[in-house]
Write a structure and sequence with these properties.
Blueprint lengths: L1 E11 L9 E17 L4 E6 L4 E6 L13 H12 L7 E7 L9 H16 L9 H13 L6 H8 L4 E6 L5 E5 L4 E11 L3 H19 L14 H6 L6 H26 L2 H17 L6 H11 L4 E6 L5 E9 L3 H16 L4 E5 L1 E2 L3 E3 L1 H7 L6
Parallel strand pairs: 3-5
Antiparallel strand pairs: 1-2, 1-13, 2-5, 2-6, 2-12, 3-4, 6-7, 8-10, 8-11, 9-10
Helix pairs in contact: 1-2, 1-3, 2-3, 2-4, 3-4, 5-7, 7-8, 9-10
Bound molecules: 2-deoxy-2-fluoro-alpha-D-galactopyranose.
The site of 2-deoxy-2-fluoro-alpha-D-galactopyranose has 10 residues, from helix 4.
Amino acid sequence: MVFRAPGRVNLIGEHTDYNGGFVLPACIGFSCWVAAAPREDRKLVVHSENFNETVEACTDANHLRPTRKWSDYPFGVAWVLQEAGHLLRGANLYVRGEIPLGAGLSSSAAIEVAVTCALLHCSGYEIDRTKVPIYSQRAENDFVGARCGIMDQFVSCNGRAGHAVLLDCRSLEYRLVPFFDDIRLVVCNTMVKHAHGEGEYNSRHRECEEGVQRLSAALPGIRSLREVAMRDLEKHRDLLPEVIYRRCRHVITENERVPRAAAALCEGNITAFGERMAESHSSLRDDFQVSCPELDLMVNLASKHPGVHGSRMTGGGFGGCTVNLVNRAVADEFKRSIESEYHAATGRHPDIFVCDTSQGVERVPIDAGESALRGFAQ
Ligand code: GAF
């Protein structure tokens, strides 16, 4: 059997997921494909086409240890499923990823989701789309060691072609919102990934926790920034060091922007949607401080281009990609212009992907899977 799980682009709602807030991502047409066949023993044998490497381990949770390489994702999933009480059979997995690595398009969430589905299926368990993102996120948090929220895994499971996913990361309730007609999602990779990014991501996470902890002196019982309104933040500003205040202000204003952006999407009001994207970018740049000169440049170049309705950094930040909402008729021309303008300004050739929204994880007919997974032996 073959499972395909997509990468994603986040339209708005950045660094809100681990604060119990709202996000509005969509799946895009790059996927991770995992072909799986059960084994008679309890070994997990995983081959990565991208890394041209095969690794193996026993599926018992006790035998699985992180090694800080790509195999931590599939082994992390096996570890979490065992910890959660599943008895896993052995399996052969063949993994092929087509999501650009390190670009912030959720290649890791996609492999986690596809492997979770493959291992559950091989061992005869139901695939529950509310639980798969939770297991996948746990693999990343507790085995791989990255403190991400649930957005990427959730949308990779529950996204739908032609739609964005409005997700409440506190309750995990979600709504599919039809995407704009005649608009393409153009993802522009700055081709930089600042090395300090991962440490900074975790430090933002800690700063948000510190904000909650300090504000709880005046707002007893709050557990996340989702529960704090702007007026409360202003009222109790003196409890917070300036930098923590700004982190909180980003999260709280971003949480207000997401439902407004989703309403604009429902109404087909792309101008209002683009305004929320611009506000989001400014807030990420100035208050949350996760942008970088290359992302700001990419947004500035895009914003001057006719036919662009919205542009902002997307994902964790410190490099990676911007997301741009561009009229279908000019999307290819936009791509060419940005390629030459960004190259002229930085000397780097950006990867630019003209995308449409796509479908969340699915089991694909073996023929489609086989052609995508040339070389899988079993
Ligand atoms: C990364 C994380 F994996 C997500 O959980 C989310 O926090 C995002 O950064 C920022 O919005 O993609």
